[in-house]
Amino acid sequence: MRSGHRLGRLLGHRLGRQFGWLWGAYGTSALGTWLAFGAFPLIAIQVLHAGPAEVAALSSVGAAVGAAVAVPLGPWVEFRRKRTVLIAMDLVRFAALLTIPTTFALGALTFLQLLLVSIVVAAADITFRAASGSYLKTLLPAEDLLVANARFESTAWTTTIIGPPLGGAATGLLGPVATVVADAVSYLLSALGIRAMGGHEPLPERREAARMRAGDLLDGWRYILADATLRPLFFNTALFNGLVMAAQPLLAVLMLGRLGFAPWQYGLAFAAPSIGGLLGSRLARPLVTRFGQHQVLVVVGALRAIWPIGLAFLGPGTGGLLLVMGVELGLIFCCGVFNPVYATYRLERTATDRVARALSAWAVTTKASTAILTAVWGVLGSLLGPRTAIGLAGMLLLATPLLLPRRAAAHPAEPEPAPNRA
């Protein structure tokens, strides 16, 4: 037994065999996602000869409709065994993505199919995240949630660093559909990993009427908006993520068009700074231990908002490239610290029997706001120019710290249940 404790200290904070399988499954699917980064637009352009409007629809319309499809799934997930839902959503994504190489091989691939697959995958992503957050809260005790979320964050940034270059190489050697196959297989492997976790998960008890009513679809939003600490964080997340993502297409137009950066320089400007996310996620727990959860949430949440406005001053040449990399490094580092702290804070403040609905509502709102703001900023970029629109997004981001919780939560939403370990 003592040797096991020594091994645990050598390997770091141990969270149990079940979490190990869950973490491995997450890493596998995350790597598959980043291997296939940009695959759908590339297939639309190279295989289907789609125009700009159709390519834009793949990301904006697909995400927005997928979010709408996921709305009724939040209440449905709440009263199902979460591990079963996780496996089902992985298999849905596997099956949906596999239709693309199949029809491509048969010469029957269409743009409509790409759009439908993007909708199915977006809805399954939201449902999976809602179920995984709810499952994590019952799997681990409260004191381990930050460690777990920091490991997920670290894994996310690691796969962000290595996935796109490997995916680009695979696309060059094997064609644009190869990475979609890899992404599909990653979801199958994730489902097998979650299945291998074992353990018994009791069926959640439903206190409401047996049949879901139309009003139940809004339960997640009602719960979030009624909580004085979750409410500002909810609006902060939707606005911050939406504005950051809305400026990305305009930045691509500015860098690859007017300023004449090569595609490899554009990729390097965003890939290299991702190391900041890996470093930030490793610092999240030590910072919370020293300064407290609320202090880190507010300070780092404010610091991450100051970086994007620097992109409005982007110029050509090496100086411009270094400016983008510096801004992205600062932004990503702050996000690497903030994200696991915020994810833990959100889980702690949400009652166990409301987690799936709240997380589903959160993800639906974030995806929808990102799609809407991206469309709005596309129009602003056309009217005002990319640089002015990017600067406007940066100025609005400076106001987002006002939407962070102003005081620390006095206590979790409820007494923590016993962890569901095998």
UniProtKB/TrEMBL annotation:
Localization in the cell: Cell membrane
Signal peptide range in chain numbering: none
UniProt GO cellular component terms: plasma membrane
Record key words, sorted: Cell membrane, Membrane, Transmembrane, Transmembrane helix
Molecular function as annotated in GO: transmembrane transporter activity
InterPro entries: MFS (IPR011701), MFS_trans_sf (IPR036259)
One Pfam family in the UniProt entry: MFS_1
Membrane topology value: Multi-pass membrane protein
Transmembrane segments: 21-43, 55-73, 233-257, 263-284, 296-315, 321-343, 355-380, 386-404
The keyword Hydrolase appears for this protein: no
PANTHER family from the UniProt entry: INTEGRAL MEMBRANE EFFLUX PROTEIN-RELATED (PTHR23513), MAJOR FACILITATOR SUPERFAMILY ASSOCIATED DOMAIN-CONTAINING PROTEIN (PTHR23513:SF6)
Annotated protein name in UniProt: MFS transporter
